[in-house]
């Protein structure tokens, strides 16, 4: 295993997983549901960590399939494998960058319309009765488990030529970064840290992820060709 390249892959993977876990959709529902259900902070964080584990497990399953395919392709393609892996990483990175640009333009357009026509905000709806704790936990965990961290799959792809040992290390990186991010931001929210800059994180995810994947693709080609 080329240590400088794998270190870059691992660091990129940590950043991708942490940024992905920091998105409000990955922890805010747990805070809101926990508050609605009257859960203690420890229980809310435990459910958040459980859902994070399910989120990681689903990603690992997809990663196994991806790495198995990558190893088979590497045996057949030989010296072309780094070019293919690096090219795919850069293509995915460019996709995220283009998608980010389109989303940003759409957001600015909608914001301009809002300011021009003064569209009123919809009034809040009355809350119904709380659901059972079992239903709440099952719903939260299931939703996150069925939406794996697809942004981490290119990281698995870049580590495929190094075998299952690299896969295991990258899975540990994914678990540590994603779960720590989700639990950490949920804790900050319950502690009353309202201003976290999370809107900026959500808007810049595509930009950061795209740039990181493009850079990683270049490293794969330069260091492994």
Walk me through the structure.
The protein has 225 residues and is mainly alpha-helical. It has one domain. The protein is 79% helix and 0% strand. Mean pLDDT is 76; it is low at 113-129.
Précis, in short:
This protein is an all-alpha fold and 225 residues long. It is built from eight helices and no strands.
What is the secondary structure topology, with strand pairs?
Layout: H1 3-21, H2 28-37, H3 41-77, H4 81-117, H5 133-145, H6 153-159, H7 164-190, H8 198-224
For the termini, the CA-CA separation is: 14 Å
**Which ranges are low-confidence, i.e. pLDDT below 50, for 5 or more consecutive residues?**
113-129
Q: Which shape, going by the Cα principal axes?
A: globular
- Largest sheet: number of strands, sense, barrel closure: none
Mean pLDDT: 76
Domain module count: 1
Query: Can you count the beta strands?
Result: 0
**What share of residues is helical?**
over 70%
Structural category: mainly alpha
Gyration radius, in Å = 20 Å
The helix/strand series, from N terminus to C terminus, equals HHHHHHHH
Relative strand content: under 5%
User: How many helical elements?
Assistant: 8
């Amino acid at each position: 295993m080329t240590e400088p390249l794998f270190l870059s892959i691992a660091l990129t993977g940590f950043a991708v997983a942490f940024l992905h876990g920091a998105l409000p959709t990955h922890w805010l529902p747990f805070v809101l549901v926990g508050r609605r259900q009257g859960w203690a902070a420890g229980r809310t964080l435990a459910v958040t960590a459980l859902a994070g584990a399910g989120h990681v497990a689903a990603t690992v399953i997809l990663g196994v399939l991806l790495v198995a395919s990558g190893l088979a392709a590497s045996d057949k393609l030989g010296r072309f494998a780094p070019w293919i892996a690096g090219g795919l990483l850069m293509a995915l990175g460019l996709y995220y960058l283009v998608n980010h640009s389109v989303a940003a333009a759409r957001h600015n357009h909608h914001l301009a319309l809002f300011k021009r026509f003064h569209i009123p905000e919809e009034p809040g709806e009355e809350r119904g009765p709380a659901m059972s704790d079992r239903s709440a936990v099952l719903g939260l965990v299931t939703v996150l488990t069925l939406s794996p961290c697809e942004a981490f799959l290119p990281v698995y792809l870049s580590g495929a030529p190094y075998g299952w040992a690299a896969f295991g290390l990258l899975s540990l990186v994914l678990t540590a970064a994603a779960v720590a991010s989700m639990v950490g931001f949920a804790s900050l929210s319950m502690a009353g840290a309202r201003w976290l800059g999370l809107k900026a994180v959500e808007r810049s995810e595509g930009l950061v992820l795209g740039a990181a994947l493009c850079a990683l693709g270049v490293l794969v080609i330069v260091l492994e060709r």
